[in-house]
Amino acid sequence: MGIASMVAKRRVRSSWAISSRSRVDTDSLLKTWADDAVWDGPAELGVGQTIKGKKAVAEWFQRWEQEFPQRKLVPKNVCMKGTFWPSRNNVLMVEYTCTETDKQGREYMYDGVTVLHIKNMTKVAKVTEYIAFAGLPQLSDLLQPMGKA
Q1: Is residue 111, in this structure, part of any structural domain at all?
Q2: Can you give the residue range of the structural domain that contains 65?
Q3: Helical H runs in 1-149?
Q4: Integer distance in angstroms from the first to the last C-alpha of the chain?
Q5: What is the count of structural domains for the chain?
Q6: Cα(26)–Cα(105) distance, rounded to whole angstroms?
Q7: Is residue 18 a part of any domain in this protein?
Q8: Which pLDDT belongs to residue 13?
């Protein structure tokens, strides 16, 4: 395993651990995100649109935390295209399982893949989520749309 792969896996594990806390520290979670980062999430994860800007993404994470106060994300596989050094553009793919409990105490489990596009070796520029929704509640019914960012 190369140095870049070790760094990438360490960052992924750290980010997923932060997301699994009962209080998500969005500043820590998004510290490696570009200010103009873009996050594409499925409709069931909110308003089904592209969220633009680190601030808007942080607000989405805060709403998720309120609706699902308990969650555990477990990364299963991490794949990387690029080498971080000297490559300026890299892609990370993370396969994971999420178990979360909503405000009413109902527990849900689902699998997903997150694709992260990293620019200039350091900043997350775009994230796209792919989730298997079998048994997952329609989150868009739970979360109020904030409008386009």
Answers
A1: yes
A2: 3-133
A3: 3-19, 26-29, 54-67, 139-142
A4: 39
A5: 1
A6: 23
A7: yes
A8: 76
CATH number at 127 reads 3.10.450.50
User: pLDDT, tens digit, for every residue of 72-103?
Assistant: 888 888 887 766 555 567 888 888 888 888 89
Measured between alpha carbons, how far is 93 from 109 in angstroms, rounded to an integer? 20
Give Cβ neighbours of residue 1 (< 8 Å, ≥ 6 apart): none
What does the pLDDT look like over 115-140, one tens digit per residue? 989 887 678 899 998 887 655 555 44
> Side chain identity at 140, as an amino acid letter?
S
Q: How far apart are CA 111 and CA 131, in angstroms?
A: 6
pTM of the model: 0.75
31 is written with which tokens? Answer: 């510290």
Any domain includes 82: yes
Strand order in the sheet with 70-81: 50-52, 33-40, 123-132, 107-119, 89-101, 70-81
- 142 has pLDDT over 50: no
User: Does some domain include residue 119?
Assistant: yes
Centroid of chain to Cα 127: 7
